[in-house]
Amino acid sequence: MSLSGKSGYYGVCILRTCLGAACLLVASNHLIEGAPSLQTFGEQLGYIGLKDPSPLFWGVLTAILEVVFAVLMLFGKVFRTACVLMLVPLMLETIAIFHSGVPKDFLFLIVLMGGCLGLAFTGTAAPSRASEQ
Predict the structure, then answer these.
(1) Res. 129: pLDDT tops 60
(2) How far apart are CA 19 and CA 21, in angstroms?
(3) Which has the closest alpha carbon to 109: 36, 13, 27, 11?
(4) pLDDT at 86
(5) Which range among 5-9, 44-48, 105-109 shows the weakest confidence by mean pLDDT?
(6) How many CB atoms lie within 10 A of CB 24?
(7) How far apart are alpha carbons 99 and 108 in whole angstroms?
(8) Is the separation of the CB atoms in 73 and 16 below 8 Å?
(9) How far is CA 105 from the centre of its chain?
(10) Is the pTM of this model over 0.70?
């Protein structure tokens, strides 16, 4: 059984949509919880040396970048670039959660990072011209 043609297109399209929605859910969670959550997240990023200008700045910046990249992934715009760039805030969040002492909470982020990396190599699932001929 081959995953070429339309079945491969739909499979990758479903995977792209689900991964984009999951990343959007993770990103929006920080924004919904508000300033205290963003401040705490920014303070946790101090473990890797991101302390200036303020912890709140790094928390807000990371959350906004996650939302922007997740939306780009969801709609398939500059898809490969969005997948690779989404790895940066996900890695920062994984490091922050790891240093907070709750190791099971970062396992979902590792799965998201693996999905982003895998889809960065696969592509956006646009139908190829070769399969139409």
Answers:
(1) no
(2) 5
(3) 27
(4) 82
(5) 5-9
(6) 17
(7) 16
(8) yes
(9) 15
(10) no
CA distance linking residue 83 with residue 102, whole number of Å: 26
Q: Check if the beta carbon of residue 41 is closer than 8 Å to that of residue 5.
A: no
User: Tokens for 116?
Assistant: 């982003």
pLDDT at 2 over 80: no
Whether the link from the prior residue into 89 is cis, omega within 30° of 0, is no
How far apart CA 88 and CA 127 sit, in angstroms, is 29
Per-residue pLDDT tens for 54-74? 777 877 888 888 888 888 888
Average model confidence (pLDDT) across the chain? 74
The residue behind tokens 């300033």 is: 35
Q: Cα separations (Å) of 47 from 6, 51, 55, 92, 93?
A: 46, 9, 11, 10, 11
10 Å Cβ neighbour count for 46?
A: 14
Q: What is the pLDDT of residue 56?
A: 79
- Read off the amino acid at residue 34: G
